[in-house]
Design brief:
The complex is a heterodimer of chains A (297) and B (470). Chain A has 297 residues and is mainly alpha-helical. Helix content of chain A is 74%, strand content 0%. Chain A is built from twelve helices and no strands. In chain A, α3 packs across α11, α4 packs across α7 and α11 packs antiparallel against α12. The longest helix of chain A is centred in the first third of the chain and has 36 residues. Chain A is globular and about 75 Å long. In chain B, strands 1, 2, 3, 6, 9, 10, 11 and 12 form an eight-stranded mixed sheet that branches. Chain B has a two-stranded antiparallel ribbon with strand order 4-5. In chain B, 51% of the residues are buried. Chain B is globular, with a radius of gyration of 25 Å. Chain B has two domains: 189 residues, Periplasmic binding protein-like II (D-Maltodextrin-Binding Protein, domain 2, 3-Layer(aba) Sandwich), CATH 3.40.190; 170 residues, Periplasmic binding protein-like II (D-Maltodextrin-Binding Protein, domain 2), CATH 3.40.190.10. The chains are: A mainly alpha (297), B alpha/beta (470). Chains A and B meet through loops of A and α4 and α21 of B.
Chain lengths: 297, 470
């Protein structure tokens, strides 16, 4: 019996081996290499600088850097702007597209298009819209007598402009998940609520929303991870400028690694951001578990 | 049978002779080269002609054209690889210290000396060769020679009504600016809204007094600030320590001056990269711009700039600060050879550089009306070409007493830190110029101070290029 179990285990290992090798080559090895780099003084553009072990000094440099702190704050600001609007808009649109109205299938498909476009293309599309002199947005604003706005060229507007582009791309994600959840809700609580004479707003607030909560938390959690890593749209639209108004964590890491070529510092910043996002995930999970436990009680 | 053998023998001999002669004539036939280049005049003019070069030499050249932002990043990755894809590299002269100290570029000194007559070494403006040298070694070859010059709307400045109004307001004659104060006066005078009059005609667009670079992207703002700072009497480095010294009075004054021009620039000034900045001059929407001569040729070509049709652009050496006469500032866009390429490919690449920068090709570009910013004395001093391109004389004259651009191995650190900090100062996020400059300098010095003072001093020394030594 144990021989058969051993053989089955060996066969299972053989089947798993390709996946393990691929995982090691594409994920584990690069991460270990980056970890190794983060403890070294490694400047790709200056081979004359000894690539020596420097302990935790790269981590200390990043954590004491005002630019890193600024990038972290900007990242959280952007997350707050995008996630809140995406949540409200996504749920509202989901409520609309799940109504049994003619043409809703087509509307749903059209609404999903932004999500399917590569972020670089989204950046380019919005670059044409925001472009200072020739952009369509300022043209249309001009038609209604509003002065042109420096969407991506003024420090006051640039982060908002990035947020608008991100909201346009990723609201459909919240919408899609919420719509799927709405369609799977049981009809009984609704019938009971209607028989009790509750208004539509009450039904949404006390029946729909509590049932949607676990799904919304999961969707928000996935979006939060993505928003924390935002890079492509910002790189295309502002490259972190004007000044450092849109410099988020990813841009900071990029600048350290591929502008200053300080690969060790860039790798250390990457691991610090990984730790931050891991803490966020843990916090999300814990609070979700706590809330589910309270509901069960 | 004998006749057949004789014929076959003769045919074999003839084939051998022809192929031997061909091999001597085209020793690099079959070599394929790749060039990492920029999508701007110094490359776009030569790129369509590489087939002609292949017909002459048998060397096939493929040119990849990339935008300036990010190009140096790709070159650094390329030069750090042991198996490079690109044998030919386009370089901007401030990169030469960075790439030179890293050993990324082939030393062209011996080749240039050997082929001095063929390449017309004495015909090249000396400072242009100096620009692409590092520690006396010639690491690139000029493909486009630049000065930071003044471009202005000659049709506006020449208008009698404008001249009279200007004199009434400022108390002196309207003419191309000789000082930065005059430059600012002219910018203020010509800043007008759509519908207002300019040179007796109503404007169908806003007219901006000046168009300068204020964007942080690829340190664009520093490309205007650095020559301006030097014309105010500042310098980059402390000659005793080799550390960043850009926090002095001249540096602060230059930054404050650049900021004082903002009201006369387009409202999106923080987004002004070089292409957008020069676009305002090309469309006739700016009265003047202090800018690198790399795109001056476009301002003379109606196919590339509407201002050449609707107006007229004049050129002059850049203004000076009140401190007194200052030299002008040069830059060179050059072609270089990747030091890690195999020898045969290096030799073939040198053949390409000789051809692509030859007097013959440069003259052809100039005569066809789509020249680059020239670097050969014979072309810049040609009276017929000077009449066709008014900026040639300015280029020639201003380089007699020209100073070299920054060439430090930490150039990218300088460009990026000053780009961000100056841009923040211009946006009003950093309250004073001194604070912005101090932040940028501190960031640079944090890295430089790890090196011994002897090394830092070596990095700031401009050793005369050996190829010009008698």
């Amino acid at each position: 019996m144990s021989q058969i179990a051993n053989r089955n285990r060996n066969i299972a290992l053989i089947f798993l081996l390709p996946a393990i090798v691929i995982l090691f080559v594409t994920t584990i090895f690069p991460m270990l290499y980056a970890l190794w780099l983060s403890f070294r003084n490694y400047d790709l553009s200056k081979p004359f600088i000894p690539r020596i072990f420097v302990g935790v000094s790269n981590y200390a440099e990043v954590l004491s850097s005002s630019a890193f702190l600024h990038a972290l704050i900007t990242t959280f600001k952007l997350m707050a702007m995008t996630l809140s609007v995406q949540l409200v808009l996504g749920v509202a649109i989901a409520l609309l597209v799940t109504q049994k109205l003619p043409g809703m299938g087509i509307v749903r498909t059209l609404l999903l298009i932004p999500m399917m476009i590569s972020p670089v293309i989204v950046g380019l599309v919005w670059l044409f819209l925001y472009f200072p002199e020739l952009g369509y947005l300022n043209y249309f604003l001009g038609l209604v007598g509003i002065s042109p706005i420096g969407w991506i060229t003024t420090t006051g507007w640039a982060l908002t402009a990035i947020a608008i582009a991100d909201i346009w791309q990723w609201t459909p994600f919240i919408m899609m998940g919420t719509a799927a959840a709405l369609q799977s809700l049981s009809p009984e609580p609704y019938e009971a609520a209607r028989l009790d004479g509750n208004s539509r707003l009450d039904i949404f607030w006390f029946v729909t929303l509590p049932q949607l909560k676990p799904v919304l938390v999961s969707l928000l959690f996935l979006r939060a991870i993505d928003a924390f890593k935002i890079y492509d749209i910002i790189y295309v639209l502002t490259k972190g400028g004007p000044g450092d108004a849109t410099e988020v964590i990813s841009l900071y890491i990029y600048r350290q690694s591929f502008t200053f070529w300080r690969m060790g510092v860039g790798a250390a910043a990457s691991f610090i951001s990984l730790m931050i996002i891991s803490l966020l995930i843990t916090y999300f999970f814990k609070s979700m578990q706590r809330s589910q436990a309270m509901q069960a009680r | 049978m004998i006749a057949f053998k004789r014929t076959a023998w003769a045919a074999c001999m003839a084939t051998m002779l022809v192929s031997s002669a061909w091999a001597q004539d085209k020793p690099y036939a079959g070599v394929e080269l790749k060039m990492l280049g920029i999508g701007d005049t110094s490359v776009t003019r030569v790129a369509p002609l590489v087939d002609e070069f292949e017909a002459q030499t048998g060397i096939k050249v493929h040119i990849d054209q990339l935008p300036y932002p990010g190009l140096i990043d790709k070159i650094i990755v390329e030069s750090s690889s042991d198996n490079p894809t690109y044998q030919l590299l386009w370089i901007d002269s401030p990169w030469v210290g960075m790439l030179g100290e890293a050993g990324a570029l082939e030393d062209l000194t011996s080749r240039a000396k050997r082929d001095a007559a063929e390449i017309g070494l004495n015909d090249i403006i000396p400072v242009q060769l100096q620009e692409v040298s590092w520690q006396g070694k010639l690491l690139g070859f000029p493909a486009s020679g630049m000065t930071w010059l003044q471009q202005y709307r000659d049709d506006l400045i020449d208008n009698p009504d404008e001249q009279a109004n200007f004199k009434k307001k400022y108390g002196y004659d309207l003419a191309p600016a000789k000082t930065w104060q005059q430059y600012k006066d002219i910018a203020e005078f010509f800043t007008r809204k759509k519908g207002e009059m300019a040179a007796g005609k109503p404007l169908d667009h806003n007219l901006y007094g000046a168009s300068q670079s204020y964007s942080r992207v690829q340190g664009a703002i520093t490309h205007d600030y650095f020559p301006l700072m030097r014309s105010f009497g500042g310098d980059y480095w402390d000659p005793k320590t080799g550390l960043c010294a850009m926090t002095g009075e001249a540096h602060v004054k230059a930054a404050e001056y650049l900021k004082s021009l903002i009201p006369y620039n387009p409202p999106d000034y923080l987004g002004l990269m070089w292409d957008i900045q020069s676009g305002f001059m090309e469309r006739g929407e700016a009265a003047e711009a202090a800018y690198w001569s790399v795109r001056s040729v476009r301002l003379t070509n109606p196919e590339e700039a509407t201002v050449a049709k609707d107006g007229k652009v004049g050129f002059a050496a850049n203004p000076i600060s009140d401190a007194g006469p200052q030299p002008t500032y040069t830059g060179t866009l050059g072609f270089a050879i990747n030091a890690k390429s195999p020898d045969k490919e290096k030799d073939a690449a040198w053949e390409f550089i000789k051809w692509a920068t030859s007097e013959k090709l440069m003259r052809r570009f100039a005569e066809e009306g789509k020249g680059v910013s020239q670097f050969r004395k014979s072309i810049l001093s040609d009276p017929q070409l000077q009449a066709k391109y008014p900026y040639y004389k300015v280029l020639l004259d201003s380089q007699v007493d020209a100073r070299r651009r920054i060439f430090h191995p930490f150039y990218q650190t300088v460009e990026e830190n000053f780009g961000v900090e100056l841009s923040k100062y211009m946006a009003g996020e950093t309250p004073t110029a001194l604070e912005a400059l101090t932040k940028a300098c501190t960031a640079v010095n944090t890295q430089l101070s790890m090196f011994p003072v002897e090394q830092r001093l070596r990095w700031i020394q401009d050793v005369p290029v050996e190829v010009l030594a008698k």
